[in-house]
TrEMBL record:
GO molecular function, one term: nicotinate-nucleotide-dimethylbenzimidazole phosphoribosyltransferase activity
Active site: E319
Record flagged with keyword Transferase: yes
GO BP field: cobalamin biosynthetic process
Keyword line: Cobalamin biosynthesis, Glycosyltransferase, Transferase
Organism of this sequence: Thiocystis violascens (strain ATCC 17096 / DSM 198 / 6111)
Name of this chain's protein: Nicotinate-nucleotide--dimethylbenzimidazole phosphoribosyltransferase
Amino acid sequence: MIAGLAWLNEPCLPFDRTAAEAARRRQDQLTKPRGSLGRLEELAIRLAGLQGKPMPAADPVQILLFAADHGVAAESVSVFPQSVTNQMVHNIARGGAAVSVLAAALGARLEIIDLGMVTDPGPIEGVRSERLGPGSGNIAREPAMTSEQQAGAMNAGRAAVERAIDGGARLLIGGEMGIANTTPAAALACALLDLPPADLVGPGTGLDAAGIAHKTEVVATALALHATPGSTPMELLGRLGGFEIAALTGAYLTAAQRGLPVLVDGFIVGAAALAAVRIQPDVRDWLLFAHSSAEPGHRAILEALNADPLLQLGMCLGEASGAAMAVPLLRLACALHQNMATFAEAGVSEG
């Protein structure tokens, strides 16, 4: 066990079947044919079991966005330079990025955490600095993180979730910003799923066919170097992940231990969710999957986690944007569950 991560052994909270059954009974008494609201009914029941309340709520929503750079960007696996990570963090903090607009429109709280960009930006209003270094290592040549950096990243994710819970959050969304981070996400997912890079590597920020082929070779090199037989999920996360991916993994583990439902975004966040489940399988109960990313590797992650995402919009932006799009569905599911009349209340005959 890495020093400072003894909390990984804490159990996840159980799903409250009594609350879920009470919610199901209520759904069956609402003025509609049973099952006619489809997945909205199941969402309300699922949230009831996770929150331990027959009348669940989807608010307040907390978005945690972790930012970091990646040494593997030196292998030319992205069409954008690393400076864009820093620029986008400023843009998010100023309210100009997709996640900023979505958070404002949803009335969701947004916290931005800098875990280590190549250039130290200094203080940025609205950004919490928890820098672990100038980006992670180049996974094609060295491990992504030292054990101390991995512990720091996972503890940063844990602390962020605890702040969210202290602030009253009832639903958690994790997001990321980091140029080239689809490469470590693909490498980590390949290692955890024992799948070849060609099955998971995609265009990321817009690579052409030649760029994807090169990126696939880079991932293969990283796997040959780090995905040795018998490696544990924690070891693979430290060797192949990145600061923000490790922080998200720590955040999801903590959310499950503390009883906070998670709405999972796309490919990069999905790789972190997969790592969290491989570290502690009961985390899976606490994950709701928002959408199916256009990034090809996301499908394999969803299948491995037996996940049926709520939306398919062709999105692959990251930043927690796809998860934010699904928040209204959860809110509406809860509103229908709470506010529709029962047959008895409405004086309507049951079928």
